[in-house]
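TA notes. Do not distribute before section.
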Amino acid sequence: MATEGQTIITLTNFTTRTVYIYYPYQNMAMRADYEPTETALDETDGIEQYNPEILGTEMLDGKECLVIRYYIEGATTKMWIWKEYGFAIRIEVNDQNGLTTIQYKNISFSDIDDSLFELPAGVEILDIPGV
């Protein structure tokens, strides 16, 4: 992710339940244990119970998406689900706090070399307890 002009990389090890937040510009990472939560792949599980309305199809970021809308607990959720993979690439939630948008880009389902999931040598790692 890029924020305020800086790149931040998150590496998650689902086996050890460890997440690293890596700041390349500082050559530093923070490590924390975590409990698994919903991922973008999980977003589409179980939405049938909320009677989603199919709004149609749209191209988003070069991907054909099924666009749906549903209501839950005072919030309106709209999703663009990549038809090829069943993956929500854009989610808009409009609730009492306003509009929140999550959009995933540069998604690839190709094989990735394991070395891309390792921190570079010499990175200072700070442990964050209790996260």
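Switch to the second chain here.
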Amino acid sequence: MSEKFMSFDEAVLILKKELNYPEDRALHFVKRFDHNGDGQLSSAEFSLFKSRIEETKVQLVPKFKEYDTDGNGYITLEEASKILRSAPFNFPPDKVLILLKRFDKDGNGMLDIEEFAGFYAEAKATNDDIAARFEKLDKDGNGVLSPDEVITVLKDLLGFDDQMARYLIDMFDTNNDGSLDKSEFMQLWAGMFGQ
């Protein structure tokens, strides 16, 4: 019994139907599963392709639809900004632009679902990393970092003296309460370490 193969066109149709992929991006995605480069998907290649579709549908599609507010199959710059500037991310505006440009592979100023997968994974990983750092520094668990908690980090990691550390805290303390909440800490961290 001979092995069955699927053409790229057939696989593209599946992606368009099941994940609403734009056609040009669908073909690019399908080609990544053609491991032997024969221009079609073998049974094994198709099995990997299909499992990736199912994984994407379960994990990513609900998020994509939530953020694709106009339902056009793309996350626009405006929609991406809303994602990252609100909870749980609270990213500074320059970080939003950096992420969008990094993952907007075709340069059209929008993210299709494949680009969104990378964008969202990076945003979540960055947020999780900064949140973990924040929680580790927030010794008393009150949700804000006192100047002493922040000064210790700035001195240890960057070698700042007390005066420079206090200056930075004042600069990023946008609500002027004398402490840094998670959003303010994220902006300081992104400013200092480029994350």
